[in-house]
Amino acid sequence: MVALKTAEKLNLEYKSSLEAISNRLTKCQQEHSKCAHHLCSVEQELQASKGREHALQEQLLKETSEHQERFYEQLKRCSELEVQMQKEIEFRRQAELTADAAKEKASAVEKELLIISENSEREKNRLQLSFSHSQDESKLLFSRVNAELDRKRIQADNFAKEAELLRKSLLDLKEQLNECLHEKSQLEYKLLSCDSPLVKANPSENQTLVKHLRDELRKAETELHEARQLKSSHANKEFLTEQLLEEKGRREKVEMELTRFQEVQLHAQRLESELTSWKSLLKQIPDVSCYDDIPKKIAYLQKEIVENMLKVGEGNARLKELQVALEMSNLSKEHTEKECKLAKEKTECTSMEVKRLELMLLSVSGECEKLKKDAVNWSKQKSGLPGSGQTNETDLETLLEQKEHAIRELGRNLCQQRESINRQHDEIKVLNENFRIEAKNVKSLERENERLRSENSLLELKLGHGDYSVENTKVLRMVNTLGINNEAKHTIETLQTELQKAKSKLQAIEELREYSGEVITTGIPEKLSQLKGQIAVLEKREERYKAVFAEKISVFRRACCSLFGYKIVMDDRQRPNGIPVTRFTLQSIYAQNDDEKLEFDYESGIATILVNEYTSQQEIQHQPIPCNCWAPPLSVLRDLFSLPQVSSPPQLFSRPPWLSAVLLVSRPQLSRLLIAHLAASAAHQDAVAASPVRNSPRYSFFSASSPGHHFSSPSRSYSASLHPRPPVLFSRPMFFFSLAAASARLLLYCPWPPVFCPFSSSQQVVSSLSGHVS
Amino acid sequence: MFQATWILYGCSELELNSLLAFQPLEDLNPIASSSHFPPPSPSLPKIFFNTYSSMASRTVSKDVITLKGSAAIVAEFFGYAANSILYNRGIYPEESFTKVKKYGLSMLLTQDDDVKSFMASITSQLSEWLEAGKLQRAVLVIMSKSSSEVLERWNFNIETDSEVIEKGVSREKCDKEIMREIQAIMRQIASSITYLPCFDEPCVFDVLAYTDKDVAVPFSWTESDAKLISNPQMVKLHSFDTKIHKVDTMVSYKADEWDEEE
Prior knowledge:
The complex is a heterodimer.
Chain A: H1 2-194, H2 196-201, H3 203-284, H4 293-384, H5 388-465, E1 473-478, H6 486-516, H7 518-564, E2 566-574, E3 580-588, E4 597-603, E5 606-609, H8 618-621, H9 634-646, H10 657-665, H11 668-680, E6 689-693, E7 696-700, H12 732-749, H13 760-773
Antiparallel strand pairs in A: 2-3, 3-4, 4-5, 6-7
Chain B: H1 13-21, H2 25-32, E1 64-65, H3 67-88, E2 97-102, E3 105-110, H4 113-132, E4 135-144, E5 150-160, H5 162-167, E6 171-172, H6 175-191, E7 203-212, E8 221-223, E9 232-241, E10 245-254, H7 257-261
Antiparallel strand pairs in B: 1-6, 2-3, 4-5, 4-7, 5-10, 9-10
């Protein structure tokens, strides 16, 4: 019973334990199912992780291949950049070589410059010496001319004094002569009146008287000779005064020349200073020694500019290439940075995943351990109750083994992944290093870029400065006359016309040159020398002509002066309005002072008398002066010229015949007689009337048709009459001038000495003349 | 009602204005009137006349620009710019200038007859060169009257489209855009007095033209040096482009002694 009871108890206990175990088994089964579920989920997760791992591996592979490609690209770029750098280095070397060559050239040119500057200095010194020499010479010449002038002046003064003295003596002698003549006439009269008884009575006395008279006559003749000498000296004096005037003119000219010389000197100094400034400027310009070098230098500089421009172009192109490369590298840099970030993120993700998997593995392994323990416990329990539990245990064990295997595989995968991650880390490190190198490269490129940009801007500045290439550009300037006054404008215009002419000439010469080709070019030096010779000969001839002309003209002037009694001075002047005009000044050799002269402006065939003190005198002012009708009738002149041929004594007319006539005519009474004769002459219808006015006789033409009205008609038919107070029409100078002009005309047609036809009444004139004198 | 309108093909409004500026007044009369039919003028080769009925609309093709028109625009621009410079820089007294509306601005034009004729001859010559594509640059130089020292250089750098010169093709650009660009330059010229140094002596001006080497020198022009300023200060101004001629403007000037001291 007890045993039963115990057995029952045991049974109950077993039942309860069975129940508990069955409960536990159900629990275990539940747990097992849970575990199986868990295992399934783990397996799924494992599969998923495998898939993920596979995807990651593929991605990694892809990335690595991409990285490798990129790396190769970078390497390629690096090699390209290296090649470029080497090229740059070569360029630099070449540039250095050219710079050295240029320096050598510069030194050579500097030496040349020194030599040339020395030469120029020497030349300058020589020129200065010659200049000072010429200056001294001119000074000497000037002083000599001054001395000469003074000498001449003193001589002229002396001559004037002498002439004055001689004139006085002449007057005395004239008086004496008059007295003598008077005495002679008285004696003749006496002789005539006394008649022969006296002669008869005392012939010896008569003889002595005749002798005495003859002596007196001789004396008178000698006196007359002296008087003639005096007259000639007077003429000499006039000539000398003229010479003095000429000398004065020359002196003025010399003074003018001196002022001009000073101006020229100043100009020369200015030019010298300019020259020095230019030289200093030349010195400042490197590689330039003389003016001829400037165009070369400019050409050289332009070449340099062109080269620089080309270099700039190349630089710009390179810069652009570099910029493009920089941008590319920047882009790749950004790309790689992004990739790096992505890779980092991925690695972080994978590490997180690994950690998670590790944690999961730990939890799974813990669970496995638990399950193992449970399984051990279970097996221990089962060892008491073998049967159905054995199979479960083996299943669980196999499952466990599988799980362990899977776990081991997972661990292995994890290790592989770690390795791959480490590898990726290494790759990233390498890429980072590459990236750093690339960044350095980029920085250097940026620096170069900056340098090139600055160079570019410098060259752009140069370009903006206004530089240009002479080879394909020329600078033209519009001729600007805005700031120039009218005079300068006029000169510019004339210069422009001259320039135009010169250009056309040049063009013609060039055409001729082209036409004649090489023939001219080959014979140019010979031709040049020949032409120079010709020029020299022509110059010499011109000088000779000038000298001859000067001689002849002075002779002509003197002759005119002595023949016509008028000094004619021609002078070119300019009116205030700038129109050139020729001025003639007429001055009689009998003029009492220098102001007694007539001035005429001669312009395009019309002569106009100018008002001066002399012409403004009332008597002269009243006279209408027909400027183009000065010439007296030729008949008057002919009569005047014919006078000396019949006159006696001949000594009286030893001077130019008509002048003597004029001299005679200057005596009022004489002239009246002359006019009377002229009036009587049937050959003439014109006449001259003369009346003494203020000691200087003046002559008038007046009409015969209306004797009371002077110059009533412009007709040329005049006749002479002794008017009680003849109207004054022409002053003496006017008459003389007209006479001179007419004589000049006459002389043109008549041979010299002029042969005049004497006419019958001339003798009467002279006889009446002599009668009047007596 | 029948009405006639003048349609101008092949040139923009700005171009037309420029062309009209160079035409004698009698040639322009037909354009001004719109009530009768004048015969087409042979002196306007690029302008074609046509009639439209009923609609009194004036249609202008604005985008096409020819070489002649472009040259006229650039030459006219140079004339106005030079006048503006002369006024703003005080080369001539301000009484001798009068205001006119141009480029949407009130521009100042000289009334001095000499200067006017001088500028007219310059612009006509520049226009001729521009049409031939021979002008590279036009420079207005301001110099001291007493010492002839160059104080300022106004550079108008001109780039010509070689294709237009060679083939005679036309380009397209809106005239308003060109006008806006020119306006900007004119504004800059007017405002340049703020930074350019003052002239303390009477000045004169000169015009230089950088041309191709093969250009024959006209009678009133002579070859010259570039009249450069040593060590100049430079200010780049705006540029304008007619698609045939591109004009870059730049002013270089002698640095003020005060600035150098500083």
